[in-house]
Design a protein that fits this description.
This protein is of the alpha/beta class. The chain contains 33 helices and 22 strands. The strands form five sheets. Strands 1, 4, 7, 8, 9, 10, 11, 12, 15 and 16 form a ten-stranded mixed sheet that branches. Strands 19-18-17-20-21-22 form a six-stranded parallel sheet, sandwiched between helices. Its EC number is 2.4.1.1.
Length: 792
C-alpha cells in the first residue's frame, strides 16, 4: 500500500472536499464525504493499478465479456479489500463523522438484472484476489435496472439514476476511445475504468465499461443553419445506445437498440484487445490465442465471434480460415439458463440493417460448419438443428454460433450441466463431448460475509485465530469442531439476533412495517419468475393464515415472511404475483385477530445492497424453483454462508449445497427432476385441486373476490395459469410437500441449540461456494492462465 496513514487520509478528504465542493469537514454532506473519501483512496491505488497493468502485459490474459455487471456499492467493499475499514471508521469517529451514513448514501451500480450480472461482479472480485489477469468488459448504462415502487400493491418502475452523486471510482479514458460502425451510423465508445481491488493484494484489476457517444457533440452545420433539434437528434441517437439496461425488446425498435448495445460492447472491446496485442506483439497471427481468451457471459456478447473475424479479415488482412481458427481457440461460452425463451434468436433481417458484413460472416461460418457436419454423415434434419441460421425462419441462433465456434461450453452447476449434456444440448454434446464442462457458480466471501456480516466475520476470525478464511474459504470447515460447543452456538445465535434487529430497523425505516426480530425470518429474494415460484410461497402463506384464523392455537412459532423481487416490466404474470403477494401481506398484517403471529413483508426495490442486509438476518433461505429450472442460483449460497438452512427443491446448486452441508441441516422438499419428467405426461392440476380443500381454498381467492385487481383480470389470468394452462411449474403438485416441510421447520425451530447447530454447520460447509474456487477452475480448465502477482 502506497503509504496510507491516518494523516494523509484526513488531508486527502479535506483536499477533495475543498477542490470539488468548496466545503470543509464540518459543513460537508454525506455524498460529498463519499466522493472525497473515494477519491482519496483512488489516488492511493493508482500506482498499483498501473503496475498491475504492466505485470499483465507479457502473459496470457482472460477477458470476461458481459452485458451485465451488477456491482452494487463500491466504497465499503473497497475498504474491506484494502484492509482499512476499521482505520477509516476510527478516523471518521475521531472527526465526529458517520462512516455508515456515508456508505449508505452510495447508490448501487445496478448494471445487471440478477444472477448473471451479480456472478460477473463476484468473478471480478475473485480474479483480483487470486491475482490473475482477468479484465471485465461491459456497458456503462446511464440508467441501470429500474427502481421499483408499489402502488396499490402493483409494481411501478422508475428510472434508476445511479450516477446522481457521481461515480468517483471510475476514470474516463478519452484517449482510448474507439469508433464503432453500424450500417446507418458511426459512434464513439468511450471507456470508463473501475479498479477491482484484490483482497489484501497489490493486484488491481480493471472493469472497463463503454459509454456510447456521438463522434461530434453536435452537428455544427445543422446547428448553424438553425436546425437545432436535428443537430441534437444525432447526439441522442448515439447516447441512446448506452442509455439503459435491457430496453423492453418486444418491439422492433427495442430489438434494434439491444442489438446495437451488444455490438457496441464486442466491437469496442475487441478493438481494445487487438490494439494492446499489437503494441506488445506486432502483427496478429495464430499466436493471438496464446495471449488472449474471451469468456462469453451467456449469448449476449456472442456477436464478438463474427466481429473478431471481421476485424482480422477486413482490417488486419488475415485469411478467413486463419481468423476462424483464432476464434476457435479464443472464445468460450457459458450457458446460464435452460429456459427456451431466454435463448437469443435474432431475425437475420435486423442484422442486415445494422451490420450486413457481420451477417455475411455468420453465413460463411455456417456454411463451413454445415459442410463439416455433412462430411461427418449428419442428415438434413440433424443439420438444421445445429445450423446457426434457422433454415425455416432465417433467424440467427446465438447459442449455436457460440457452441459451434467456441472451444468450451459450460453450465453453472452440476445438475444444470448434466441437463445441458443429456437433454437441452444433447445433440451438441454428442458432436463435441470434449467442449462440455461444469463450473459450479460461487460468490465472493468478501462482500457476502466479511463486509455484510462483520459481527459473524469477527467471531469466525476469533474462533480460527486468523483471517485466512476470507481468502481461503475452505478453512471454514475447521469451525466444525465447535458445532457442539454450546457457548459458541449461543454467541452465534446472538449474532443472528443482532443482524435481525438491524434488518428490522431498516425495514421499519424503508417499508414502514414493524417486524419482531424474535420471530422466524423466512426469506425469499430473487428476480420474480414463475419458475422460481414465489406464487407457491404466497399460496402457502395464505393457507397458513386461514388455518391460523380457524385455530388461533395453531402450534407455530411467530413468523415473518419476507419477499424481495423485481418483475420484468413487460412480464404480466410476474407483476400479478407481486400484486397478489402484496395483497396477502396487507390482509395478514392488518388482521388484529391473529395477534401478529405471522407477518408478510414484500420489500421494495430489492438490490445488491438490500441483499447485504437480508442474507445475514435470515433463519430460512427459500429456494423453491421447479426442479430442473434454476440453472444454479447464487442467493442460496449467500444465505448458506451467513448461516441459514436452505428450504428448497433439489434444483441447481441447492443439490450441491445439501451435499456439502447435509440433508439433516436443510429442508428439502418437492418433486425432483425425474419425478417431473414422469409426471409431465399425465399431470392434471385439477386432481390436486379437487383432493386438497386447503389448496382449493387459497386458489379460489383468485376468482372469488377475496382480492381485487383493478378489474383487469390479472387474478383470473393467474388462476388460469394454474388451472387451465396445465400449471407449467407444478405449483399444485408441490404444495403439500412444501407445507409438510414447513411443519418440520417449525418443529426444528423449537430446539434453539439444535437449530443453531444446523445453521452453524451451514457456515462450516460453505467453503466450496466461494467464487475464488470457481475462478480458479476457469483458470485451470478453460482459460489456462496463471497467477501473476504484482510485485512492483
Ligand atoms: C432471462 C429471461 C428474460 C426474459 C424473460 C424470461 C427469462 C428467464 C430467464 C432469464 C435468465 C437469463 C440468464 C440468467 O440470469 N441466468 C441466471 O444465471 C445465474 C448465474 O449463473 C444462475 O445462478 C441462475 O440460476 C440463472 O437463472
Amino acid at each position: 500500500m502506497n503509504t496510507l496513514n491516518k494523516e494523509n487520509i484526513k488531508s486527502g478528504i479535506i483536499k477533495y472536499l475543498k477542490i470539488k465542493y468548496r466545503r470543509t469537514l464540518d459543513t460537508a454532506k454525506d455524498f460529498e464525504l463519499f466522493n472525497a473519501l473515494s477519491l482519496t483512496l483512488l489516488e492511493h491505488i493508482i500506482d498499483e493499478w498501473d503496475n498491475t497493468d504492466e505485470t499483465y502485459k507479457n502473459t496470457k490474459n482472460a477477458y470476461y465479456f458481459s452485458a451485465e455487471f451488477l456491482m452494487g456499492r463500491a466504497l465499503g467493499n473497497n475498504l474491506i479489500n484494502l484492509g482499512i475499514y476499521d482505520d477509516i471508521k476510527e478516523i471518521f469517529d475521531e472527526l465526529g463523522l458517520n462512516l455508515n451514513a456515508v456508505e449508505e448514501i452510495e447508490e448501487d451500480a445496478g448494471l445487471g438484472n440478477g444472477g448473471l450480472g451479480r456472478l460477473a461482479a463476484c468473478f471480478m472480485d475473485s480474479g483480483a484476489t487470486l491475482e490473475v489477469p482477468l479484465t471485465g468488459y461491459g456497458i456503462r448504462y446511464s440508467n441501470g435496472l429500474f427502481k421499483q415502487e408499489f402502488k396499490d400493491g402493483y409494481q411501478n418502475e422508475k428510472a434508476d439514476s445511479w450516477l446522481k452523486y457521481g461515480d468517483p471510482w471510475s476514470i474516463r479514458r478519452d484517449d482510448e476511445s474507439t469508433i464503432v460502425e453500424f450500417a446507418d451510423m458511426t459512434v464513439k465508445a468511450v471507456p470508463y475504468d473501475t479498479p477491482i481491488i484484490g483482497y489484501k493484494s497489490k493486484n488491481i484489476n480493471t472493469l472497463r465499461l463503454w459509454k456510447c457517444e456521438p463522434l461530434e457533440e453536435f452537428n455544427f452545420d445543422l446547428y448553424n443553419s438553425q436546425q437545432y433539434s436535428e443537430a441534437l437528434d444525432l447526439k441522442n441517437r448515439a447516447d441512446n445506445i448506452s442509455r439503459v439496461l435491457y430496453p423492453n425488446d418486444t418491439g422492433r425498435s427495442g430489438k434494434i437498440l439491444r442489438l446495437r448495445q451488444q455490438y457496441l460492447l464486442v466491437s469496442a472491446s475487441l478493438k481494445d484487445i487487438i490494439r494492446k496485442y499489437k503494441e506488445q506483439h506486432g502483427a496478429i497471427t495464430e499466436e493471438f490465442s496464446n495471449f488472449n481468451v474471451i469468456q462469453l457471459n451467456d449469448t449476449h456478447p456472442v456477436l464478438g465471434i463474427p466481429e473478431l473475424i471481421r476485424i482480422l479479415v477486413d482490417e488486419e488482412k488475415l485469411e478467413f480460415d486463419v481468423a476462424l481458427n483464432i476464434c476457435k481457440k479464443t472464445f468460450a461460452y457459458t450457458n446460464h439458463t435452460i429456459l427456451a425463451e431466454a435463448l437469443e434468436k435474432w431475425d437475420a433481417e435486423l442484422f442486415r440493417c445494422l451490420f450486413p458484413r457481420i451477417l455475411e460472416i455468420i453465413n460463411i461460418i455456417n456454411s463451413i460448419f454445415i459442410s463439416e457436419l455433412k462430411s461427418k454423415g449428419y442428415n438434413d434434419h440433424q443439420i438444421n438443428e445445429f445450423s446457426i441460421v434457422n433454415n425455416f425462419n432465417g433467424q440467427v441462433r446465438m447459442a449455436n454460433l457460440a457452441i459451434s465456434v467456441g472451444f468450451a461450453v459450460n453450465g453453472v452447476a452440476k445438475l444444470h450441466t448434466d441437463i445441458l449434456k443429456n437433454s437441452e444440448l444433447n445433440n451438441w454434446y454428442k458432436l463435441y463431448p470434449e467442449k462440455f464442462q461444469n463450473k459450479t457458480n460461487g460468490i465472493t466471501p468478501r462482500r457476502w460475509l466479511r463486509l455484510c456480516n462483520k459481527e459473524l466475520s469477527n467471531f469466525i476470525t476469533e474462533l480460527l485465530g486468523n483471517e485466512d478464511w476470507v481468502k481461503d474459504l475452505n478453512k471454514l470447515s475447521e469451525l466444525k469442531k465447535f458445532a457442539d460447543n454450546n457457548e459458541v452456538l449461543e454467541k452465534f445465535l446472538q449474532i443472528k439476533l443482532t443482524k435481525k434487529k438491524q434488518l428490522a430497523q431498516f425495514i421499519k425505516e424503508n417499508e414502514g412495517i414493524e417486524i419482531d426480530p424474535n420471530s422466524l425470518f423466512d426469506i425469499q429474494v430473487k428476480r420474480l419468475h414463475e419458475y422460481k415460484r414465489q406464487f407457491l410461497n404466497s399460496l402457502y402463506i395464505l393457507d397458513l393464515y386461514f388455518r391460523l384464523k380457524e385455530n388461533p392455537n395453531l402450534d407455530i412459532p411467530k413468523c415473518t415472511f419476507i419477499f424481495g423481487a423485481k418483475a420484468f416490466p413487460g412480464y404480466r404474470r410476474a407483476k400479478s404475483i407481486v400484486k397478489f403477494t402484496n395483497d396477502i401481506a396487507n390482509l395478514i398484517n392488518n388482521d388484529q385477530s391473529i395477534n401478529g403471529k405471522i407477518k408478510v413483508v414484500f420489500v421494495k426495490n430489492y438490490s445488491v445492497s438490500y441483499a447485504e442486509k437480508l442474507c445475514p438476518a435470515a433463519d430460512i433461505s427459500k429456494q423453491i424453483s421447479t426442479a430442473g429450472k434454476e440453472a444454479s442460483g447464487t442467493g442460496n449460497m449467500k444465505f448458506m454462508l451467513n448461516g441459514a438452512p436452505t428450504f428448497g427443491t433439489l434444483d441447481g446448486a441447492n443439490i450441491e449445497i445439501v451435499n456439502e452441508s447435509g440433508e439433516e441441516n436443510n429442508f428439502i422438499f418437492g418433486l425432483k427432476v425425474n419425478d417431473i419428467e414422469n409426471l409431465r405426461h399425465c399431470y392434471n392440476p385439477w386432481d390436486y385441486f379437487n383432493n386438497n380443500p386447503d389448496l382449493r381454498r387459497v386458489i379460489n381467492t383468485l376468482v372469488d373476490g377475496t382480492f381485487k385487481d383493478n378489474l383487469n383480470n390479472d387474478y383470473r389470468d393467474l388462476f388460469n395459469s394454474l388451472m387451465n394452462e396445465g400449471d407449467q411449474y407444478f405449483v399444485l403438485a408441490d404444495f403439500r410437500s412444501l407445507k409438510d416441510t414447513e411443519d418440520k421447520v417449525f418443529e426444528a425451530y423449537k430446539d434453539r441449540l439444535a437449530w443453531a447447530k444446523k445453521c452453524f454447520l451451514n457456515v462450516c460447509n460453505a467453503g466450496n461456494f466461494s467464487s475464488d474456487r470457481t475462478i480458479q477452475q476457469y483458470c485451470n480448465e478453460i482459460w489456462h492462465i496463471n497467477k501473476c502477482k504484482n510485485t512492483k
